[in-house]
Each structure stands twice: as C-alpha cells, then as structure tokens.
Amino acid sequence: MNDERTGESSGQAARGGSGVPLAEIEEDASELIFPDEFKDAETLLISEVHTLLKHHEKQNESQNEFQLPNEVFAKTLAYTERFSRFKKHETILAVRTHLITKKLHKFEIAALANLCPETAEEACALIPSLETRFEERELEAILTHIQSLISYDK
Length: 154
Known about the structure:
Layout: H1 10-14, H2 46-62, H3 71-83, H4 89-101, H5 106-115, H6 120-126, H7 129-133, H8 136-153
Helix pairs in contact: 2-3, 4-5, 4-8
C-alpha cells in the first residue's frame, strides 16, 4: 500500500524511505540529519552566546548583588570570549541575516559563522553538507562577505 503523501509503500515509510528502519537511522550532520529533539531548536553563534552571558553578568552587577559567578558560567564566558568571531551586535546581526538569505540550514549557518572558513574548499571540508548544496563560486561569495564583515568588526 502506498502512502498518498510520499508515494512510498507503508514498509518504506516505516523505514524512513531509505530501506533503513527509522529506529536505526543515525544522525549525520553531513546529510543534515539530526535527532528529532533538535527539529525545532534554534542555533546560536558563539558571538551571540557571549553577548547573552555578558548581558546576564551586567544584570547581576546592576542589581548590586555581589555574586561570584559559578565555575561553569565563568568557563563558558571565557570560552565565548576566546572564540567569539564578532564583537559588535550590528556585525553579528549582519552575519546571521546574510547567511539566512542564502537558504542555509540552521546548522550550516552556525558552523559557517563560528568557524569562518576562508575558502570554499575549507568550508566543505568542515561542513560536508555544503559540497552538494552549493557551487564553489557561490560559497566563495558567501565567505568573502563574512570576511568583509570581520574586517568591519575590528
């Protein structure tokens, strides 16, 4: 019996359409296959996490609550400080907006913005899903724009 929506037989649908039972399908970022619990989750850039943590830190200071940050907070803040590629809010917004317009998957948006590869070859090595979804010249244009935003951010 065929599923009218997908044209797959009921056996195919139970196996995810690929012949592999759904329970056996593993996540595969190179194919943009993620567990169901991430289906509606949003991704954040490291720079966005850093901004949120700094905001939280300032809120605590402004409430005149002297609290030493817990160890996890302090380590996370240090990590985001070290690996944040963009400092200005306007730049973070510009990067995210630019990448969203390119019809990238949310995983690809976060990976490109966090890793900032310089070439299409490097981007495809780090984010394999890009290789089948974009032409090299298209990727180069995206990366060139990100690099120009990094220059502006300094």
